[in-house]
UniProtKB/TrEMBL annotation:
GO molecular function, one term: glycosyltransferase activity
Domain Glycosyltransferase subfamily 4-like N-terminal: from-to ranges: 15-188
This protein's UniProt keywords: Glycosyltransferase, Transferase
InterPro entries referenced in this protein's UniProt entry, alphabetically: Glyco_trans_1, Glyco_trans_4-like_N, Glycosyltransferase_grp1
Keyword Transmembrane helix: no
PANTHER family referenced in this protein's UniProt entry, alphabetically: SULFOQUINOVOSYL TRANSFERASE SQD2
Originating species: Aminobacter aminovorans (Chelatobacter heintzii)
Protein's recorded name: Colanic acid biosynthesis glycosyl transferase
């Protein structure tokens, strides 16, 4: 079976879930190819792996030699960009014809494939995986119906959480063609340590791009409050990741008087991330709805932290409560509620024994519902079924 993954950039450090899914398909005997807007070989050394260069189906840019024109054309707005890009998508869509199943990550890519399928009569079943911004932003501006052609042309919509599933069905997707498919982590490769504290200092960590929806502003403000109301608590906070808000977050930490306790590490290799997770006690990700409507799906970083044995602190946001149950597998606070978040952090500092119980329950939750091995088995079964349906047709 030949399966094509359609993505924006490949490979991408911020989309390791795509690489994990591709790896899972390869391990199950599926021939994988990738069509993307831009290849990043030689640019992102942390994931510049020969496996991605040498996929059985190859890696190709959708617009071929015209691919470099995309950034220039993207400066156009509205219908002009939509018409030009769609015309080029259709013109170069022949690359999709050799595959048995097409998997589009993010709704925008599903939309591009669906439009091309309609014009080029491509018969391969289309699976579109919806992750976050592709649902949140159109929900915010009332344009979720833009995916109507995806709902008609696509064989299956796979949102990563139940919140998105309900939104897609409400927007017109057939309920029997929408199913939740979580992203996951390889629990066998993540060592578990139930948050033992070898000294009095509480080590907190966040791993994310520094964008609005990650809510790092509120983590910093909460720690500023902890320092004010409980100066007896000794803590340190490591933030791994870059992004457009990096400088602003550094300035915020300084204005709150906590810069000496906060280390901004920037982007790090996955091996270093795992090591720093092993040294930490608490993982903080107080996600929020961004001003443009951008939402989380269910952050893989939370899954990794839970599997590793950290106490996780997050928010009642999008699909996160499907992963974290407050007081059972982690702690949740309302979005943007600095006081509630500070209280959760103080509770963690005062209750190390209870945190170990949370950590064990969290590990079980990830093993049962978010293990990438199980999820990739189910995903491969879905692809084989769809390919068989195409052959039968």
């Amino acid at each position: 079976m030949k399966v094509c993954f359609v993505v924006d950039k490949f490979p991408s450090l911020s989309e390791t879930f795509v690489l994990d899914q591709i790896e899972g398909c390869l391990a199950r005997g599926i021939e994988v190819g990738v069509i993307c807007n831009e290849t990043t070989f030689g640019k992102e050394r942390n994931i510049d792996d020969p496996r991605w260069r040498n996929l059985p189906g190859g890696v190709a840019q959708w617009w071929g030699a015209l691919g470099p024109l995309r950034p220039s054309l993207r400066r156009w707005s509205g219908k002009l960009w939509d018409k030009a890009s769609t015309a080029l998508d259709i013109a170069f869509a022949g690359k999709l014809e050799k595959y048995d199943v097409i998997v589009a990550h993010f709704g925008n890519n599903g939309l591009r494939v669906a439009r091309a399928m309609k014009q080029r009569r491509i018969s391969a079943p289309l699976v579109t995986i919806f992750h976050g911004h592709d649902v949140g932003a159109p929900m915010h501006d009332g344009s979720l119906s833009r995916y109507e052609v995806v709902f008609r042309q696509g064989a299956l919509q796979l949102p990563v959480n139940g919140f998105f599933r309900d939104a897609l069905i409400e927007a017109g997707a057939r309920a029997d063609r929408v199913a939740v498919h979580h992203m996951g982590v390889d629990t066998e490769t993540i060592g578990f340590r139930a948050g033992e504290r070898r000294d009095s200092r509480l080590a907190l960590i966040s791993v994310c791009r520094l964008t609005e929806k990650k809510g790092i502003e509120f983590a910093l403000r909460a720690l500023g409050e902890v320092q004010s109301v409980r100066p007896d608590i000794d803590w340190s906070y490591t933030i791994i990741g870059g992004g457009e808000l990096l400088d602003a977050m550094k300035q915020l930490a300084a204005s709150l008087g906590i810069a000496g306790r906060v280390a901004f590490r920037g982007p790090c290799p996955h091996s270093e991330v795992k090591q720093r997770l092993a040294e930490a006690h608490v993982f903080v990700l107080p996600s929020v709805k961004a001003g443009d409507g951008d939402l989380e799906g269910i952050p893989v970083a939370l899954m990794e932290a839970m599997a590793a044995g950290l106490t996780v602190v997050s928010t009642y946001h999008s699909g996160i409560p499907e992963l974290i149950e407050d007081g059972r597998t982690g702690l949740l606070a309302p979005e943007r509620d600095v006081g509630a978040l500070a209280q959760k952090l103080v509770w963690i500092a005062d209750n190390p024994g209870s945190c170990e119980e949370l950590a064990r329950a969290a590990r079980r939750k990830v093993e049962e519902d978010f293990d990438s091995g199980r999820l990739n088995d189910a995903f491969a079964d879905t692809l084989f079924h769809l390919a068989a349906t195409k052959v039968a047709a």
